[in-house]
Amino acid sequence: MDIERVNLPGIGMQHSVTTSRGRRLGVVSHHTGRRDLVVYDKDDPDSTVVNVALTPDEANVVAELLGTARIVERLAELNRQVEGLVTQQIAIPAGSPYDGRTLGDTQTRTRTGASIVAVVRDREVFASPRPDFRFVAGDVIVAVGTADGTNAVASILTDG
Amino acid sequence: MHGILLVEIGAIILSLGLLAALASRFSISPIPFYLIAGLAFGTGGVLKFDESESFIVAGAEIGVILLLFTLGLEYTAAELVGTLRSAAPAGLLDLVLNSAPGVAVALILGWGPVAAVAMGGVTYVTSSGITAKVMGDLGWLGNRETPVVLSLLVFEDLTMAVYLPILTALLAGAGLLAGSITLAIAAATITVVLLVALKFGHVVERFVASDSEEVLLLKVLGLTVLVAGVAAELKVSAAVGAFLVGIALSGPLAHTAREMLTPLRDLFAAVFFVLFGLQTDPGSLIPVLGIAVLLAFTGLITKAATGWIAAYRAGLGISARWRAGAALLPRGEFNIVIAGLAVTAGVNERMRPLAAAYVLIVAVVGPIAARGAEPLAKWITARSKPSLVKS
């Protein structure tokens, strides 16, 4: 599915997609955090017929209902906003000292400054894992921090 | 003595509040109401204000500075530079089509070339504030003509950055040499500010950034007024200086600064519009009314045509073209700012009532016409494609 992305100077961003059944949907992202969910006219692809304004919290709820893909967008946004911040996906290898241990045990945030913001297991995304989240070999964690910090996370998860 | 001063200021601000409430009830811009209030209070009007004059004059000046500053804040330097290339053809068309009526009227009335340049500005600029509000209110932000309309507004913004110093130089009656020096200074300043904003925006931001909103407010306001004052001393126009400070700030800081300064801007800009009305003799409106109506009518048609053509060039359908035209119609704050600059510098006194009447008409008719655009476009589409009409 192609996402069409247009800048709206002074307002924010306009994303739109066309579904396989030919309906066009869009999201207007305001700088203020407001999101407008829009549905385009069947006969006139330039015009919206439905327009729902969402607060940031409401938008998050809708996004969670629709799936977890929003976390990825949020990370990309973080990356754009803060120069020098990187996201890294790190697999927990078999034989890792943390296979079977919890996120809290790793103390990665204290030791590296980087944060583990999500864990992908069997194509399922666990957003914002809590300290008692238990890792299993094969999990892929998503770490956010400086390049040095996320590299340090990788070496901790591999070698302890 | 002091009591009377406070009574006058209080009465003015309170009546502006009541007028703004009325305007928001009909969801149109309050600017025409402020102008009418000024007309009612001022020269030859019903009421007289003497004590508060110096407050109003200083307040109006700060109002202009804040209007231009928040205009600069609206777009980041990257957006300005990025839009320049894609919007240039439509933007130039916009400039030519919409400044031509003003230039023509000034020349026909024999006001001279300097007044013609000023009148061109008065008829040209769309009010980005009113347009953005109209599009938001009508739920048009998701539509496909919205990026087209916005990029035209950004282009107008850039044009203002070049136009205002030229106008100021001309108004100062500068000769060819002095004029070109002023222009060179202005062009250099704009280039430097754009460069600084693009490359070193974070340095400026670090200077003003603060966790305390109070500190941020005072720093930003102080910096803006200071730069505006220095620009005025350099004969580049205070308005341009403030505009450039706005462009130099971007990112989250710009967002916070806008939130904090918008209430101040609303207050002082209202004072500016009132002053413009105050200085306009209501009696002088009548002789220029015919020209103003004609100019407003032409201005509505040329703007609608601009939007229509820009949307057509972007490959959009009929309804989107009509909406783009309608969205661009409203004129407002900057047309009055330009007329104010010109009249203060001694250009033909009749420009004041003409600009006031022009903005009064267009700022009211624009948003109303925008509401009618969609039904009109539907009706036209239905007529031209009878096969699609359900029977």
TrEMBL record, chain A:
Gene Ontology terms, MF aspect: monoatomic cation transmembrane transporter activity
Matching PROSITE patterns: RCK_C
Domain spans labelled RCK C-terminal: 73-159
SUPFAM superfamilies referenced in this protein's UniProt entry, alphabetically: TrkA C-terminal domain-like
Highest taxon, organism lineage: Bacteria
Single GO BP term: potassium ion transport
Record protein name field: RCK C-terminal domain-containing protein
The organism of origin for this protein: Virgisporangium aliadipatigenens
Automatic annotation (TrEMBL), chain B:
Domain Cation/H+ exchanger transmembrane: 14-368
One Gene Ontology term, aspect cellular component: membrane
Highest rank taxon of the organism: Bacteria
Membrane topology: Multi-pass membrane protein
Sequence intervals crossing the membrane: 6-24, 31-49, 55-75, 148-166, 172-196, 216-232, 238-257, 264-280, 286-311, 354-373
GO annotation, biological process: proton transmembrane transport
Subcellular location(s) per record: Membrane
Alphabetical list of InterPro entries matching this protein: Cation/H_exchanger_TM, Na+/solute_symporter_sf
Key words, A-Z: Membrane, Transmembrane, Transmembrane helix, Transport
Gene Ontology molecular function terms on file: antiporter activity
Pfam families in the cross-refs: Na_H_Exchanger
Record family assignment: Belongs to the monovalent cation:proton antiporter 2 (CPA2) transporter (TC 2.A.37) family.
Protein name: Potassium transporter
Organism per entry: Virgisporangium aliadipatigenens
Species classification: Bacteria, Bacillati, Actinomycetota, Actinomycetes, Micromonosporales
